[in-house]
Amino acid sequence: xxxxxxxxxxxxxxxxxxxxxxxxxxxxxxxxxxxxxxxxxxxxxxxxxxxxxxxxxxxxxxxxxxxxxxxxxxxxxxxxxxxxxxxxxxxxxxxxxxxxxxxxxxxxxxxxxxxxxxxxxxxxxxxxxxxxxxxxxxxxxxxxxxxxxxxxxxxxxxxxxxxxxxxxxxxxxx
Length: 174
Hints:
By secondary structure, this protein is an alpha/beta fold.
């Protein structure tokens, strides 16, 4: 299912992150701050979707979410000369305009400003999380990349009449 992920994304490309697995623990207050912090064992997943097209997603380690790693992901998966990147205002997306044209949406104010939104990738995250809860109930971090690949494959072929036959044909090389 991962072999097909070679075409570059073009046009309006939305990029966002989500966190999968683990349970959020109750917040606690750090002794030097009044902010509440939530400790979690969730695994970050970064995804990109071509508006009205295909999705690409990758599992990251928490310490690997930085501009360098994300720019590598963009260079591997996006046609930077023919794409406009749309993200939220997370810190690691701030330098993206150095790679390709970039617009941001501030979710604390609104979720869409005309055509500037990340609703397509958010929709994919909703399908992924409901699918994991409803079909698999839980997933291990060890195999999370395979689950992400499966859901991406199913999403990318959502318009195909018989995805089962397509998968079998690709499996046997016909």
